[in-house]
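Morning!

As promised:
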Amino acid sequence: MDNPYIRLTQEFNQGRLRAILASGQAVVLYRLAIMSKDGDWILREETEALTHVIATLARHGARYRYGAPLDLRWLVHGWSSHLEFQEGGLRLRCDFVTRPPRVSPASLRTLWEAPVQKEAPIVSLPVLAELKKTNREKDYAVIGELARQMEDPRLQALYSRSARDLVRLAQDHPDAVREAAVERPLLSRAEQGREEIERLLDEERRALIRKNEDRLDRYVNAATRWGAEWTRVSKEIAGLPLAEAHEIMATRAAEHLPREP
Amino acid sequence: MSERRDEFLSDEDLDLKNLTALELETHWRLWLTQAQGTNDADRASYSHGVFERDPSV
């Protein structure tokens, strides 16, 4: 497939698995919607992986955008790194994390042990559903369709956004729904019917949106000094080879960007 | 009459499942090319990660 983000994923993974395609491009490869012009990856939390990714992006002439350096000192605390370059008239943006939000350490381990292989390694349906619990309303529609692709009724119960589907699941798979209710309390009310579940789904979505907003606020507030410094740093690294720019970025971030948000 | 179900995405989105790999690629490339038209408008913003806006833009 001549998708530049898939080609980049192959380059990142030359020799060993280092990068798993996530979010918008994974949604495309699950053939659910075409909804993102950027690429984002979960990277293996190892210096070798980051070094390889930086070298790959350097060959494409990438530059840093405002963000954390592609450096484990920040990435292990959930920060994200952002780079971009132009190719064939397209602006290609590359976003990276090693600790995706809401993904448990066990799920992350499974991701590396057995990634889903489409045109490129991509996150599993449940991990993608967790990534989509953002503060954007449209992402909850995607979760609704992702749940319909899941085969395990317990996973369907954990992620479905359809009251009709949940009522039917509770009738057809009561044990799976009971088991899932430990993690998703609204399922324990499934017998109260569609309208009650619809109300609870709305409440749940609003609570998830607020929770993600609070999470982002912590990072945005922690980056205040880095943001104030960024105009100067971005001028300092402009036009430099990426490896050199990266060293400066990491040095400056060590002075202005806290590792823990 | 068929039973109604909750709908999340458009028929056009859901029809992606019926495309061949080549058709999906062509459709995506066309979409991405058209989407470049908003590059100026979104040059400061982020669609992933923990940063929301580039303060230098």
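Residues 69 and 247 of chain A are 9 Å apart (CA to CA).

Hope this helps with the figure draft.
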